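For the sake of transparency, this paper describes our internal protein records without simplification. Such a record has a labelled line for the sequence and another for the backbone structure tokens. Nothing more is needed to write down the fold, since each code stands for a local backbone conformation. For reference, a complete record is included directly beneath this paragraph.
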Amino acid sequence: MPRLKIEDLDKIADQQRRKMTVREGGGKAKITVHMGTCGIAAGARNIMSTFLKEIEAHNAHDVILTTSACAGLCSREPMATVELAGQAPVKYVDLTEEKAKKIFASHVLQGKLVQDYALSIGSERIQ
């Protein structure tokens, strides 16, 4: 096993801080990439990688990136849900890497909905 460098330890520490933020709910934004079998087949891994790169490029430590199973709309995959603190979640569909970048820049960083890619606002709950 190769020796760890200080940079490696810093990266591990940052990853652990992000995990704690998820548990404590301390992020200003949460992005959920739907990665059921249909999502993965449609390209959800690329969407996840794109969001991860955008988070790192913008040093956005207050953005939580997570995954979920299928959202039930296989024909609209790949999909992601963006939740900003105090606002209803927005489900984005038919994503590409370019669309994911635009969603990150506009919705996640600036709080502006990208209407052209949004399917719904709000969450589905059974009372």
Q: What stands out?
A: The chain has one domain: 28-121. The two ends are 52 Å apart (CA to CA).
